[in-house]
Design a protein that fits this description.
By secondary structure, this protein is an alpha+beta fold. It has helices at about 1-5, 10-25, 30-35, 35-45, 70-75, 115-130, 145-155, 165-175, 180-190, 195-210, 210-220, 240-250, 255-280, 290-300, 335-340, 345-355, 370-375, 395, 420-425, 445-450; strands at about 50-55, 60-70, 80-90, 95-100, 105-110, 140, 160, 305-310, 315, 325, 330-335. Helix 7 links the parallel strand 6 and strand 7 (about 160).
Length: about 450
């Protein structure tokens, strides 16, 4: 301010000016909580069928809020049954945490005053009320203890898997000496489709560091390995969906709660419309992502030799003369990729090319253009301007107070930090009683001993 405008301003005055400007732009954070009931009411009015829940403490203070838009609930039945859950800290004046559950094309989100066992259990309970439970459903997350506990209570029969990147980061921290060599082996082992390949890679890992096997066994092979998984995780081995969502709302996490929820709704609306336009304009029979997978598998199949056994059983020899048996009617291959990914493997693509059959017919229905279109056929209707809201008395009288925020613990320094030049040019203190350096006559113990 001094250099650009010639104004003298203290630090505290600059801070108060910044806070006032943020209030003018974003609104007063504590006032934002009072508008929550109206915001949820308008969501249900403009998007009937949405599930919104507000939970308060006995003294009317905010604890949790959950939102699942009707468009996300409807599209859930067309999504692959894998849910990625995650939590991210908020940076507003009242802090809190935003919990999200994201499927292939559906999202539910909640804001809680703190991330703990109770909040995650409540979140999963609300998710179950909104979305229910699907066959072959799977939950993917990091190894946060509260997530694991909440999911096991609300979804005891649902498989819970671990993001392999989060697991790798834990391995890297505990066994950092050989992490460069371990990385390639671990990810190959996690993505191995055959038990023989998994065991061979585990032996390679033992030769690098034998301690890793015990750690991975404690985590549970079925939580991170494809070959040991109880359900098909397909190609969802990580929590990248949640990470992409967190990257998009990074700046919105500093907003008051009303502005944050409005931002999230607009984000879902934007993505819904973008994907709907993409679905309407596509000319291929499956989604673009899976079309690229088929193209890659088709390229890998070019040097393979096919020998038919029956109309639906074929022997496929790869470039290394390894024998693989493909059962087209069962959609299975001895390499296990066909049945796990639910998309033709390179060996199956060799058969399809040999028989001149269409590959999309052998893909999962969740990958097809028809499902893609149905997923986004229900739009997310935007909210009208707040000044035009017509709220009933019951909603207006619903008092929501902001949560009590405890200040972050701060470590007080015992002495002021000295600058570099102070250390260089500070004179050494000499005691006037004993003549030694490093103390003065008031703190001298030598004189007392004498």
């Amino acid at each position: 301010m001094k250099q650009q405008y010639g104004i003298n301003k203290s630090n505290i005055k600059a801070y108060r000016t910044k806070e006032k400007a943020l209030e003018l732009l974003r609104g007063i954070p504590r006032e934002s909580y009072r508008k929550l009931s109206g915001h949820l009411y308008m969501i249900n009015m403009t998007n009937p069928g949405s599930v919104t829940r507000l939970h308060k403490s006995e003294d009317e203070r905010f604890m949790y809020v959950f939102i699942a838009l009707n468009a996300s609930i409807i599209r859930w039945k067309y999504c692959y049954p894998i849910i990625v859950v995650d939590g991210t800290f908020l940076k507003s004046s009242h802090r809190g945490t935003m919990l999200t559950a994201s499927a292939q094309d559906a999202t539910a989100y909640a804001v809680v005053d703190s991330e703990n066992d109770a909040s995650w259990e409540w979140f999963f309970e609300m998710f179950r009320q909104a979305f229910g439970e699907k066959e072959r459903m799977c939950i993917v997350s990091d190894r946060h203890a509260s997530i694991l506990r909440g999911a096991s209570i609300v979804y005891p029969e649902v498989s819970h898997c671990v993001c392999i990147f989060h697991l790798w980061n834990n391995i890297k921290k505990q066994f950092n000496k050989n992490h460069d060599r371990l990385r390639e082996v671990f990810f190959a082992m996690a993505r191995a489709y055959k038990i023989e390949d998994f065991n061979r890679l585990m032996e390679d890992m033992d030769s690098i560091d034998k301690r890793v096997r015990g750690y991975l066994f404690q985590v549970g092979y079925e939580k991170w390995s494809i070959v040991h998984s109880i359900v098909n995780r397909s190609m969802v081995m990580t929590s990248n969906i949640a990470e992409s969502l967190n990257a998009r709302n990074r700046e919105a996490r500093e907003l008051p709660i009303m502005s944050l929820l409005d931002y999230m709704m607009n984000l879902v609306m934007e993505w819904n419309n973008t994907n709907r336009m993409t679905a309407m304009s596509t000319f291929i029979d499956i989604g673009q992502k899976y079309h690229e997978v088929l193209k890659e598998n088709s390229y890998l199949s070019q040097k393979m030799t096919v020998k038919p056994s029956t109309d639906y059983v074929y022997v496929v020899m790869d470039a290394k003369k390894r024998r693989n048996i493909v059962y087209m009617q069962k959609r299975e291959c001895s390499c296990k990729r066909f049945q796990v990914d639910e998309i033709p493997s390179p060996h199956a693509m060799a058969v399809l090319d040999y028989t001149h059959m269409e590959a999309p017919k052998y893909c999962s229905a969740h990958y097809t253009k028809e499902y893609f279109k149905k997923t986004y056929e229900v739009p997310v209707n935007p909210l009208r301007d707040e000044t035009t809201w017509d709220l009933p008395t019951k909603v207006l009288d619903n008092v929501v107070l902001p949560p009590i925020v405890k200040g972050k613990p701060r470590i007080l320094t015992k002495s002021r930090r000295k600058g570099l030049y102070e250390y260089l040019y500070t004179e050494t203190v000499t005691c006037g009683l004993c003549g030694k350096q490093g103390h003065n006559r008031r703190t001298c113990r030598n004189a007392q001993d004498n």
